Amino acid sequence: MEGQTIQNLWQVAQGSGRWESGVLPSSENLAKARASLPTTLSDAGNSLESIQRHILDDIVPAFNGGSISPNYYGFVTGGTTPAALFADHVVSTYDQNVQVHLANHSIVTDVEYNALGLLLDLFNLPRTTWHNGTFTTGATGSNIIGLACGREFVLQKAAERAGSQITSVGEHGLFEVLHALGLSGVQVLSTLPHSSLVKAAGVLGIGRANVRNVCQADDPLRFDLEQLEKELSRVDKVSIVAISCGEVNTGRFATSGIEQLGQIRRLCDKYGAWLHADGAFGIFSRVLDDSPEFSTIKKGSEGIELLDSITGDGHKLLNVPYDCGFFFCRHPDLAINVFQNANAAYLSAGATDGPSIPSPLNIGIENSRRFRALPVYASLLCYGKDGYRDMLQRQIRLARAINEWIYDHPAYTALPEATSKTELVDQTFMSVLFRANDESLNRDLANKINETSRMFVSGTSWAGAPACRIAISNWRVDVERDVKLVTDVLAKVAL
Ligand SMILES: *Cc1c(COP(=O)(O)O)cnc(C)c1O
Q: Is the dihedral of CA 123, 126, 131, 132 positive or negative?
């Protein structure tokens, strides 16, 4: 990325070069960039050309290869497809605000609504029941909306049972609703939820401490249904059940098919609970075909059409730029109870002849909103279901090839520990979790790998000890090339 011009930048983004020279910036480039930052805003401005030079020469070389490099495996980063990149430039250039559906003023709300429908098609979720929801800034935003809708729903149900008129948290506030119902709170029941779900509980007045793991004693990834029912039957609390549809360390799923989800669904119905899935990346397992090669992975998201709400991420496996997430909901009239702009007549949509499209500002967190649906729209139309299936298959095959190598290597252990290589491969989605067997190497493993700058992994912890995670989410994955690179790095680090 040492390029001097916008043209070079484009070439980098299109795949030439930068990531081959390292996934992390050099310390020199970081120091140079830091030293170039102004200490104060001057009265006089600068020429556009000088600012362009400053950004391209000083700042850009200190970026990491996050989305540009197919060998950046930190977080779940994803990349940007050429179609999405093109559309994102259009978004910035025309700077449309997607907030109120004004059918005679702009097409943007129609495009966003259409893109949501295309996503449902990608995930084989029926539009008839699921074409509600919105685009968000990411899975965190989607989890906040999901728990907010859940909170509204479970308290509405409790109010119906109690014959109370005070039903809406959006209207009356959490305290008054709980008080009127004689309840002590809302709880979220899950298995190894993503930190953002816990954050959402904090934001929404549910409380981080009220997110409870109800997992099996010998498997933190799976529900203990007996314990789940016990929690759901409490008379002092109402509950939201959150399915980890893709756990962030292991990539594994909390459920293994429609039968199990059906059981959880029935329990939720019995006790008036809301059923949400955090499928930030896990929902993508629904694009896989029915081949035996991927059947275990596909089972992980089987049956999520039975749920009430689903979180998904755009800037991860969909490979559109930051920031982009999406939220699907089976209940069309719920989000507006929480997110409406009730006191601003000028924000209401006029009557239209077209499809009835809700104004995004009344069903999500933000009012003014970026047209982040356009890169999604462009990339989906460009790749189609087949293109996304191919992308995901390459990602899974790479993860599995790396895991097989790790399983056989005396210096490493693949996690969670498997009883056979077949079982390990079968369970591997697009994440590889592992540790070094030597304790002192393991403590420093992520650093040692990342120091090579040939690939980047996240340091995490598993079962109380440090571990590394390789999260594969870039559209540029090339199984043969990348497995060679990764195993070469891991072999050298273990010497
Ligand atoms: C990444 C992730 C999130 C948070 O998503 P953001 O896009 O960073 O807001 C939530 N849940 C899961 C499972 C994730 O992987």
A: negative
